[in-house]
Amino acid sequence: MKSLLLSVIIFINLTFFIDCKTKLDLGDESKLPVISTLFNNRMLLLLKGTYATDNPLDWSELGNGTGDLYVDAQGEGVDPTMTLVNQPKVGNMPIFLDIGEVRISSKFEKGYNELTQIRDTVDSNKFWDYIAPNRQVFCTVTYSFDNNTCTESNGIMKAYDFFNGIGAQFPSNDPSSETVSWTFATGQPWMGREYYYAGIYFRSLVTGYALDAGVPVSGRFDNRPIINALNIVPRNNYAAGTTSSQKSSIVPKMFPALYSQLPTQSIRSDMMIRDGFDPYILEVRINLKENLMLHSYLTSRGTTVTYVGVSDIFFDHKGEGDAGGNILTRARIIYPETASSLTISGGGNSLLHYYGIFRFHENEFINVLPLAATPAKQGAKIKYLNPGTYRAVCLGDLTKQDGYPDTVVRETTFTIPEYPFRETYNIDLTCP
């Protein structure tokens, strides 16, 4: 009897597995979850909308403690004279973000020259690792009385984390691969993979203060009507002064907001995902919160639109419809189990100064985002740094006060050793 029962159980199990195999063979694989979506316990993807990685300035501290929006130069030869009725404090202005996806790539040569070598969908599919293809919507306040995409996906809390230094979690797959990769800078094999590019694909980025000839602008976000707000993605896709013919050969700067790792940054790279099972964080950030500025441009109807965009840090805006090229992106891989913390003595509590952390071989401090950064306050701290030698740089927003540091004040070097893990190290750097 027992042997008969055992035979029946074995037959049932064999039938079950044979049936599963048959369904897979018939092409039903697409109905099954991708294995990495079942358990992505290794990688945490965080997005940050701040120049500082750690403890960014509060909304009320922006504008050198006034909490005011920056205002671009206006008048003859620059931005048309703006309408500034009921101008909000920067912390009271609604912000809505619709992010299509986040991608990274290990194909250095194909992405060279800001992706202009990628000509079609086939090129794009070969180039990118589609690690986070699920659209996410963040909002600092809700935009409808009934349920919407933002409230249904906890987007208000994610917007809070996006702007306060914690980082908004973005659902993702683990892109790491058990391969031997050849690193660009050292020419040495690496167990794992080196990544050279990261891209955030913005569907829309809406700032909640916009007037056309003094009348609030009407727009849409998440297919809902929004009053007194403007989607600034079209304004930031191209730098001021870009001609129509030039645009045909340029990749829009917000699709994606692109990080391209420089050779000096890859010498001791923070974009290597090593082989194994230890968890890591992929942090991708842009300089948005600290750099919000009022701009204006003349429409084809002869009216002046006043709106909140990004301060013209690198490309001077003089009333053109385009005002892009001033959003920077940087990505890094953090291994929390082995990373250490850094405390910095010497901060003078200036709201115009930052501590920027760069790899020792980096020699560009202004035109790129620091690997890590924090305001130059007493008790300044950087939470995660992988082992290696670094430069700590005191940076000031001095030459043109627009929220972005443009002046190197002083610097020092320091080293985070390979061992012991998770230690806290201190350096002294007077700033300012």
Compact overview of the structure:
With 432 residues, the protein is of the alpha+beta class.
Outline the structure in words.
Helix content is 16%, strand content 35%. By secondary structure, the protein is of the alpha+beta class. The strands form seven sheets. Strands 3, 4, 5, 9, 14 and 15 form a six-stranded antiparallel β-sheet that branches. It has a five-stranded mixed β-sheet with strand order 2-18-19-10-11, with no helix packed on it. It has a four-stranded mixed β-sheet with strand order 6-1-17-20. The longest helix is centred in the N-terminal third of the chain and has 24 residues, at 2-25. It starts with a helix and ends with a strand.
Q: Topology, pairings included?
A:
Layout: H1 2-25, H2 35-38, E1 43-48, H3 62-65, E2 70-71, E3 95-105, H4 108-111, H5 121-127, E4 129-132, E5 136-139, H6 149-152, H7 155-164, E6 168-169, E7 180-182, E8 189-194, E9 197-207, E10 210-212, E11 215-216, E12 218-221, E13 224-227, E14 230-231, H8 233-236, H9 244-247, E15 257-260, H10 263-266, E16 272-274, E17 280-286, E18 292-298, E19 304-310, E20 329-334, E21 340-347, E22 353-359, E23 372-375, E24 380-385, E25 388-396, E26 407-416, E27 424-431
Parallel strand pairs: 1-17, 2-18, 21-27
Antiparallel strand pairs: 1-6, 3-4, 3-5, 3-9, 7-8, 8-16, 9-14, 9-15, 10-11, 10-19, 12-13, 17-20, 18-19, 21-24, 22-23, 22-25, 25-26
